[in-house]
Design a protein that fits this description.
Number of helices: 0
Order of helices and strands: EEEEEEEEEEE
Largest sheet: 7 strands, mixed
Distance between the termini: 40 Å
Shape: globular
Number of strands: 11
Radius of gyration: 13 Å
Strand content: over 45%
Structural class: mainly beta
């Protein structure tokens, strides 16, 4: 059974940093391209970043480019999202995905002074 469990969210001041993790199991993680999304308050889902199966390629939404970095550990089946210079507009529930109908429950990130 596929499981994706995000962690690392919390409350941070503007300009701060957080590192999100997504522990996966139940599928061959090293062969999947992986994504991070976020659900903004009162809005739909926003795609944030994607990383190739071997981590050689990564792409980002314009809204986070230069501030967020996606990475992965294929030995331990973990996906990461390093978030720097966080701003109030980054407040959202962040979740990882391995494709359609494959996502975790999410972790809340709140950026506020």
């Amino acid at each position: 059974q596929v499981h994706l469990v995000e962690s690392g969210g919390g409350l941070v001041q503007p300009g701060g940093s957080l590192r999100l993790s997504c522990q996966t199991s139940g599928f061959t993680f090293s062969t999947f391209w992986m994504d991070w999304y976020r659900q903004l308050p009162g809005k739909g889902d926003e795609w944030i970043a994607r990383i190739s199966s071997g981590a050689s390629m990564a792409s980002y939404a314009d809204s986070v480019k230069g501030r967020f970095t996606i990475s992965r550990d294929n030995t331990n089946n973990i996906l990461y999202l390093q978030m720097n210079n966080l701003q109030p507009e980054d407040t959202a529930v962040y979740y990882c995905s391995c494709g359609e109908d494959c996502r975790g429950q999410g972790t809340q990130v709140t950026v506020s002074s």
